[in-house]
């Protein structure tokens, strides 16, 4: 008998893997913003009761009574942003992106102040965290 070569045709199964790519959902903005908020340690100064985020315990003891807190302004809970933030003609997003980069001031406890801490993450992260503090 002739030696027959069997041709195997098992090479058509490439598609399955492509169907399993993760889809980023619409709620990701909020989750991403929350992550930025926590990673940036915004909660070192701010609580955000609406999201059940408590203020981190002060690490002053560990640092040996560092900064003079007497004159310092009290960081507000961010569940409800102040009128000075929400009633800006330019809009909350535009204002906060400048404020968190210390490029704009706001009125807090009767004083015109820059933010305590300059945001150091990416522009995308800044956008996400700004939406997050607005409950978006
Ligand atoms: C070192 C303390 C500190 C850290 C860290 C900090 N903040 Fe603040 N933040 C303040 C203080 C104090 C104020 C009150 C206004 C001022 O003094 O700038 C404020 C004000 C704000 C306001 C305006 C609140 C209002 O009155 O409506 C927003 C929004 C805000 N911070 C967001 C953030 C976000 C987001 C982060 C993290 C990326 C952050 N803050 C990190 C201290 C802090």
Short recap of the structure:
The chain is mostly helical. Helix content is 32%, strand content 4%. The protein is elongated, with a radius of gyration of 25 Å.
Q: How would you describe this structure to a colleague?
A:
This protein is mainly alpha-helical. It has one domain: Cytochrome Bc1 Complex, Chain D, domain 2 (Orthogonal Bundle), CATH 1.10.760. Helix content is 32%, strand content 4%. The protein is built from six helices and two strands. It has helices at residues 15-18, 28-39, 60-63, 83-86, 92-99, 123-133; strands at 106-108, 111-113. It has a two-stranded antiparallel ribbon with strand order 1-2. The longest helix is centred in the first third of the chain and has 12 residues, at 28-39. It is elongated, with a radius of gyration of 25 Å. Mean pLDDT is 81; it is low at 14-29. Bound molecules: heme C. Heme C is lined by residues 37, 40-42, 44-46, 73, 75-76, 78, 81-82, 85, 96, 100, 108, 113-117, 119, 129, 133.
Q: What's the arrangement of secondary structure elements?
A:
Elements: H1 15-18, H2 28-39, H3 60-63, H4 83-86, H5 92-99, E1 106-108, E2 111-113, H6 123-133
Antiparallel strand pairs: 1-2
Helix pairs in contact: 2-6
This protein binds heme C (HEC).
């Amino acid at each position: 008998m002739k030696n027959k070569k069997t041709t195997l045709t098992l090479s058509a199964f490439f598609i399955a893997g492509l169907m399993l790519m993760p889809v980023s959902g619409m709620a990701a903005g909020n989750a991403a913003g929350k992550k930025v908020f926590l990673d940036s340690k915004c909660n070192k100064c701010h609580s955000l009761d609406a999201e059940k985020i408590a203020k981190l315990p002060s690490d002053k003891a560990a640092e040996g009574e560092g900064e003079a807190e007497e004159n310092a302004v009290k960081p507000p809970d961010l569940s409800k942003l102040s009128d000075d933030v929400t009633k800006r003609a330019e809009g909350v997003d535009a204002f906060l992106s400048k404020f968190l980069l210390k490029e704009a001031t706001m009125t807090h406890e009767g004083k015109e102040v820059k933010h305590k801490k300059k945001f150091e993450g990416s522009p995308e992260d800044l956008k996400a965290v700004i939406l997050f503090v607005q409950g978006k």
